[in-house]
Amino acid sequence: MLKVLAAAAALATAAMTTGPALAVTAATAANAPEMSRQEKRDHDLFLRASADFQRRGHSALARHLPALRQALDRMPTDYGQVVEQDERTIIRVSDPGDVLIMLTALAASGSKMEQPGSGAAAMPNVYGDITLMLASEAVEARRYEEGIAYLDRTLKIQPQNWMLLSEKIAALQGLARWEEALALADDALASPDLLMLLHRGPFYRRRGFSLIELGRLEEAKAAYEAALELDPEDANAKRELEYIDQLKAGASPTEPQVVAPLP
């Protein structure tokens, strides 16, 4: 997850703005919302940590952790993913693909798009990204309870943040809390949230993983097959389906490896 997050961070270096036709014009750019000075500093910290991790790995990231924890402590209590601010809809989503999806959906709905000086604007999800970085580092180091604590803080404000939810399921699986992980995956798959619907693959895989450990192999197989329907090239799902076939043939279970990166 950390590698995925760091790669996405390289693309999420500035706020993006759109109008009804999803084109950034001089007028809309002039009306674009700005991050506060502190939020900008915390975003720069996140980008530096991401760049150091990409270049030098976990040891380089470690020196940023205290500052990242302090930054998370500064997260506003109303730091939602979609909020209304100054007659505009603000979307805090860092992934460029998700940004386009959300802005397109808002344009199609006509949400505040026809009012002068209004519209929708996308900004980096600074504290959501910092949360994911801290939690992913903790989970990959097998400090699962610490990771869950970070995730729960931000999920109270961003309950439909699909990346944080997926990481929490991984942490629960690391603690062998299979039923809780399964329930959270099922809740995510039942969510009507647009981004949750578009990112069902990771939750089907998380669901299948818990079901294997619970001995419910047929249900696990169905979950991984659902993931493959969404992405026929999903290597993780293919590998787990092969593992299920081996278990059915009498093979001994292997030690669970819960930290599987998102595609």
| Low-confidence blocks of residues | 10-31, 112-117
How far do the termini sit from each other?
A: 9 Å
Q: How do the strands of the widest beta sheet line up side by side?
A: 1-4-3-2
Indicate the structural class: alpha+beta
The 3D shape can be described as globular
Oligomeric assembly:
single chain
**DSSP helical segment count:** 14
Please describe what this structure looks like.
- Helices cover 61% and strands 6% of the residues.
- A four-stranded mixed beta sheet has the order 1-4-3-2, with helices on one face.
- Helix 6 links the parallel strand 3 and strand 4.
- Helix 12 packs parallel to helix 14.
- The chain is built from 14 helices and four strands.
- The radius of gyration is 20 Å and the shape is globular.
Question: What would you say about this model in short?
Answer:
With 263 residues, this protein is an alpha+beta fold. It is built from 14 helices and four strands.
List keywords for this structure.
alpha+beta, globular, 4-stranded mixed β-sheet, 263 residues, 4 strands, 14 helices
Helix and strand topology:
Layout: H1 2-9, E1 16-18, H2 26-30, H3 37-56, H4 58-62, H5 65-73, E2 82-85, E3 88-92, H6 96-109, E4 119-123, H7 126-140, H8 144-155, H9 162-174, H10 178-190, H11 194-198, H12 200-213, H13 217-230, H14 235-248
Parallel strand pairs: 3-4
Antiparallel strand pairs: 1-4, 2-3
Helix pairs in contact: 1-3, 3-5, 3-7, 5-7, 7-8, 7-9, 8-9, 9-10, 9-12, 10-12, 12-13, 12-14, 13-14
